[in-house]
Amino acid sequence: MVGRLTGGDPSLLRRINSAVVLHALRGAGSPTLTDLTRLTGLSRPTVEGVIEGLIEAGLVSESEPEEGGARRQGRPARRFRFRVEAGHLLGVEIGPHRVAALVSGLDGRIIGAGHREVPEAASADERLERVRQVIADVLRRAGVPRTSLRAVGVGTPGIVEADGTVRLGTALPGWTGLPLGQRLQRSFRCPVLVENDANAAAVAEHWKGAAKDSDDVVFVLAGLSPGAGSLIGGRLHRGFGGAAGEIGALHLLGREATPEALLSTTDEPLHPLDEPAVAQVFALAKQGDPRATAAVDRFIQRLVHNVAALVLALDPELVVIGGWASGLDGVLAPLRAELARYCLRPPRVTLSLLREAAVATGALRLALDHVEEELFAVEGATAARR
Amino acid sequence: MVGRLTGGDPSLLRRINSAVVLHALRGAGSPTLTDLTRLTGLSRPTVEGVIEGLIEAGLVSESEPEEGGARRQGRPARRFRFRVEAGHLLGVEIGPHRVAALVSGLDGRIIGAGHREVPEAASADERLERVRQVIADVLRRAGVPRTSLRAVGVGTPGIVEADGTVRLGTALPGWTGLPLGQRLQRSFRCPVLVENDANAAAVAEHWKGAAKDSDDVVFVLAGLSPGAGSLIGGRLHRGFGGAAGEIGALHLLGREATPEALLSTTDEPLHPLDEPAVAQVFALAKQGDPRATAAVDRFIQRLVHNVAALVLALDPELVVIGGWASGLDGVLAPLRAELARYCLRPPRVTLSLLREAAVATGALRLALDHVEEELFAVEGATAARR
């Protein structure tokens, strides 16, 4: 496996060295040059050269010498720190019922958050206006100037193209075909990265949620029609056209009942986004209402089938269930039992830890990834077979 | 993305340089040192050092100077070539009805092939004995001594663990729990790599079959109960426990009819491995027999559902249909039509080009991959995210 790592590229070595030093700086508190030499295995002149470059780029500063330290004789050693305040990141969720935003420094630690309700029938323009308000609020309250943003991540329902256009998004009015990345880009000078909401949530659970200890994860955003995001070997699997995990469409194939019909206790299907009506069906089922019980059974069976299809196709170590349906009673236990009974190698099944923060958190992580890739840019060594 | 590429490892640079020179040698005919310097971007002393090492390892030899070339004055430049005959590889299929073997040099070009029928009811011991016979025949006829083998790849039905044990393999008697890698290992001094048959076939179609131009492929081994192998970004996706793609188990979940019952025209299910009986049902359906037509419809509907589940989960660019059912009339057209109608981003669907050679060819490629990874061993630069 050699790929683009041709032997004679000195700039590659420089970038690797910068990345190694930056990683070490972020891991340590405020290391000295001697510390960094030990941590990185690089020579002192190399570390010095890299540090000078990072200081020039505004990413590293010399920290104040500690008072009363052990080194009393002579000049104290210079210490350095990564400037997390050198830039900021924004993570945004644009959902059917609410929009939310998180802001962080370059270390990804969240320093501000906000959200607003939005009517499910809102037009794309109304929804985007609400997004802009939330972002402005969050930045203002956190004291972060817009010019300090280095990247903005956005998570939203639908199949999202690489350029941030929503190829297909039936959950939100006016979403299909919307050049969402381009529309939001007008408000920022930094890159805006748009991602499917389940994909963003998968990234979030892996970063700081229920999937921290696993690199092979399927996150199921369980609603009436479930979507999923997958990490394979710790990396987001988007699929060739960004449509991986859209398992909710499976019932279309057999001309089977829609999720809205499945969960209805009458001859009329529920409204696709009517979560209170869904919750009521679950509540009635809990009280023993036979029609509601039958409806819930149909719904759970469909969900299990969809999750099983994902599990059989991908064979993850862990399945994380999120989305509003994950909060309902009687969803997790049957899922676990059925998967354990019938999957050839059943995965662990657990609930989302980040809950409603998952999508915005994942969007923030995607923004952070983008910035880190720029900071630490090293061409990956990919397999060059044949 | 930095991973294990710490800056101060000189042996890493040596290995990268060796790999770069070896790649260049294999691509060019019989290059001179000057050619290699130009092709690799490395300095002449570096190339010379690497070449000496490769000659010592038996992987490179100096080729005869060309006669009558343009360089008549003075000593002709030394030319070098990769010694494809420095070792050999074996690719083996162990299936329900037949066992097959392919042998190649280090360039992967096939120089010998053979196969034998095996009764589907054969015990594991009988089947392995048949495998040994086929391998001995193929090696003898190709004039390849067993000691020249550098790696053996094996493709077989079932979920295969990393150590070559069949975790679950209901298609072959005595297969579940069989330490297949260990059993075969006794016959060879080189590594034996065991892989699921659909996974091996996916690798084969990508190497020299219907998926040469795509890195995001699902290969469906279509039989009564379909299995699948997936390539994501050109790499085999085995899943966390080696069970990825075992989509045929999906019907277990809904307590739905078995494939053998689906395709039966009577109240009795077919025998799981009775391919002639299946072919007869398809033939009867073609003649208009209503029970056979209904059975075939049920079968196709199940296959489409399973393939759709894979497509929705993974979003591949291309689906390749192989296995015996791919040779039956009336399988490809409905698959294409249904996927195009209902998948959010329908993939291309095409037939296997390698047909019954797919599994053994893929096993050979996996053996070649293993040897190349040894030859070109460079620790991959993996993402070091938090």
Structure overview:
The structure is a homodimer of 386-residue chains. The first copy, chain A, is an alpha/beta fold. Chain A has three domains: 65 residues, Arc Repressor Mutant, subunit A, CATH 1.10.10.10; 136 residues, Nucleotidyltransferase, domain 5 (2-Layer Sandwich); 141 residues, 2-Layer Sandwich (Nucleotidyltransferase, domain 5). The first copy, chain A, has a five-stranded mixed sheet. In chain A, strands 12-11-10-13-14 form a five-stranded mixed sheet, sandwiched between helices. In chain A, strands 1-2 form a two-stranded antiparallel sheet. Chain A is elongated and about 85 Å long. The N terminus and C terminus of chain A are likely disordered. Chains A and B meet through helix 1, strand 11, helix 7, helix 10 and helix 12 of A and helix 1, strand 11, helix 7, helix 10 and helix 12 of B. Chains A, B: It comes from Streptomyces clavuligerus. Chains A, B: This is Putative ROK-family transcriptional regulator. Chains A, B: One of its GO terms (molecular function) is DNA binding. Chains A, B: Belongs to the ROK (NagC/XylR) family. Chains A, B: It holds the Pfam family ROK.
By CATH, the topology of the largest domain in chain A is: Nucleotidyltransferase, domain 5
Which CATH class of the largest domain in chain A? Alpha Beta
- Tell me the series of helices and strands of chain A, N- to C-terminal: HHHEEEEEHEEEHEHEEEHHHHEHEH
Q: Biggest sheet of chain A: strands side by side, in what order?
A: 5-4-3-6-9
Mean pLDDT of chain A: 86
Q: Can you tell me the CATH superfamily of the largest domain in chain A?
A: ATPase, nucleotide binding domain
